[in-house]
Write the structure tokens for this entry.
Amino acid sequence: MRAAATARRAPGDGTGGGRYTRYGRYGPWAAGAAAVLAAIALQSQLYVGQERVVGSVFMFIVLAQGWNLIGGFAGYASFGQVVFFGLGGYTTAVLMAHARWPYWPALAVSGLVAAAFGALIGTPLLRLRGHYFAIATLGVAEGTREVVNNLTGLTGGGAGITVPTFGARATTAYLGEDGFYLLFLALAALALATAGLVTRSRFGLALRAIHQDEDAAASMGINTTRAKVSAFALSGLLGGLAGSAYTFQLVTVYPENMFDVSITVLMVIMVVIGGSGTLLGPLLGAVALQFISEWLRQSFTEAHTFILGAIIVVVVIVMPEGAVTYLREARRGRGFSPLANIRRYRL
Amino acid sequence: MSTFFQATLNGVLQGGLFALIAVGFSLVWGVMNVVNLAHGSFVVLGAYVAWELSNHAGIDPFLGMVGSAAALFALGYLIQRGLVNLVVNAPIFITLLLTFGLDLVLVQGMNIVFTGDFQAIRTSYASRGIGLPGGVQVPLGRLLTFAVAVAVTLALVALMGRTRTGLAIMATGMDRGAARLMGIRARHVYALTFGIAAGLAGAAGAMIGTVGTFHPADAARYTLISFVIAVLGGLGNMYGALAGGVVIGLAESWAGQYLSGTWSNAVAFAVLVVVLLVRPTGLIGRAFYEARQEA
């Protein structure tokens, strides 16, 4: 692993590649459980508005971890990841509004539908590499949005669809801000646990191998198609679950906001800023970006995307491999310089 | 039948403009392996430059597009030299994110300076039409923009194939290491390529302003169209961009005529995904850049 990492640097090298950390096998799980308990304790200290912000941080942790599976571990930069989010959300809305299902089974089915869709489109699309894969997924997401937009009988089209959650026709009563905080927290914990399991499994190693050299991975006996499609489906599952919860929280959703390209872009930015192919990177990226973005929105109403854009430019140039890798190298010390990445990647 | 001819004509004319929008994007992608998500905001910025020139100096937009192109060339050169060159060897999504950040800065900057209102560059002649037999109307402004767009694209082909600068750009795109050994300054050539692409986008923006409206939020749409056309035509292939532009123009125009609702928006993406799966090198592209796709 180390030899490979020095031979060719790719994000994800030498990060959790060893199966055991020095804190032992159960250390990370204990830390995760403690974090979940801390988040539950934090809830009582928050106002309703703050609860919503922190809940959205949890949602982006789910989405970023999902993207990290296919984009970070396997190195396939999906730019249509929002399709799972939108599909999961619309599955929930349609099941609750038309089939009159309660929410919880709809949540599960939404995740499965998104995962199945991932496997279905992943099988042909994952034959494409690099930018081509990125665009093809983008095309699928945009195309799916238009299909949802035009199936007016089922989805309500551009007029949106409303989940029956208030009044006598409600199939499941609205969870309220407290309830959604806990729901998103549970999903975030699930996403982290999934990523943790993948990191330490043969499956995770197979994905890393595909990232570094797909042909070599195939010649080592890895079924690359199966590994890639599984990773894509798993990322679809997480995206679908997040979309389902988001739809339930918003009550009324429209194709434009459920299939918004900028949701995909946020996932990618969070993963890359945090550290793609690492376990903690997407977590760190989601927390940092969502809080910074919220703070900017409140402090600089007009210029906030302007400043956010400038921050992205600077961060991407200074630490293109993400904060986690950057900090690890800084801690290791020897020969570290804050601008080392520029020296590495500039022309 | 005349509606069919009208739709076909509109599609072809629109396609020429699409080609001019996309050709620079395709060039940058082909030569540097950079997907420039800020391309659409260059287009819109070019429209604003021509709009300002027309409003304050009374310069005709077909002349003003030279000003747009020059301003955007300078901006593009500086962005590549100062920012993109710093991460050009990093994995692909790094450059994607960098240009996305630039896009946010440019679009929001335009929102602050010019507000989010729809604008158009008014001329006395652009909305006039020429009648053809069979009741088909040729809008003069669209005809002119088509002619300019095709002429500029062909001029770019000539620049690439016949001048030392163009050959240096092509050589750097094929093999940067070898090009540098031949004494080509890759940093300068990359910046030049990016500047040319931005300049063409600026010119296209000025054209868009004369035949329709524009506002900062249009940037994403133009980036997306460039994406689709660049892939359809084959990366860095300028004739391909023309063909791809016309294909997309026709597809959108026909779909708009014969399909209900917003299905027409889905057509371009359906075409794209099918072409990618069947012929990933584009409609008339060869596997020219394939070897270093993953580099």
